[in-house]
Amino acid sequence: MKRYIMTMAAVVLLAACSENKASGDAQPATENVEKADSAEVKENVDSASVDGVTSATNVANSPTFNGLMMVSPQQDATVSLTMGGKVHSLRVMPGQAVARGQVIATIDNPEFIDLQQTYLEASAQTEFLEKEYKRQALLGENDATSMKKVQQSKADYLSMHSRLSAAASRLKTLGVSPASVRSGGIKPYLPVTAPISGYVTNMNVNLGKYLDAGEPLCDVINKSQPLIVLTVYERELNMMTVGRGVEFRVNGMGKQTFSAKIVSIEQSVDAKDYSIKVYAKVTTPNSGFRPGMYVRAKLK
Description:
The structure is a single chain. The protein is an alpha+beta fold. Helix content is 38%, strand content 25%. The strands form 3 sheets. The chain has a 6-stranded antiparallel barrel. It has a 4-stranded antiparallel β-sheet with strand order 2-9-7-4, with no helix packed on it. Helix 2 (110-141) runs antiparallel to helix 3 (147-173). The longest helix has 49 residues, at 2-50.
């Protein structure tokens, strides 16, 4: 009996020691899990702070909107030909800055030479017939000539003047000043000029290529007053008002934040994804902005 009691006591003591050892081993494991969780949270926070595009601003509880940089339609001009012809020379390169009225290219077309000749001949004939009409009118007042001759000289003058006006209008349509033709004579090639000041884009021509009338030669964009166009969904539309401020970041430009102001909201909903376009004018321009750049924005 005594041996039995001693045996049971030894078993109880051994079990107690095993439990204490297991408890001691479990405590470091718990600490390791807590440390691992803390390290993961810290890593996620650091990762989120590195990407300057995925978190546009610090405005609390404000949704983020995706969008693109663009220029307004008034600052985007397509240079197309009113008269077709072969590209004789190219005066600029893609991406080059140009001023309004600067020659971008010259076009070779014999019809342009004929038009200038028609204008100069009509100008000379109009001047002669005007003097003749005035002379005949003076003679008619003194009964020195018949009214038939006076009327005929007037008809000849008005007919030639109409032809002169038509030729002058065609020259203006081509961007050529009639006065420059009168003073400088016939030009062999039609100059194509920039309609606005800006930068040359979408230039897909080469020397010798024939372009039809109306075919585009290039585009000129003025990016001094850029816009951002944001994609907004129906549930967020009530947050959008003209005049409200926007803060945004541009992909590839780090954490730098820029400002804009909403100037226009489209009135139709896209049938595919039920989104609406919202346009905001950039109030903090940057020379690094380019149309088509990806932006992420939040409302102020």
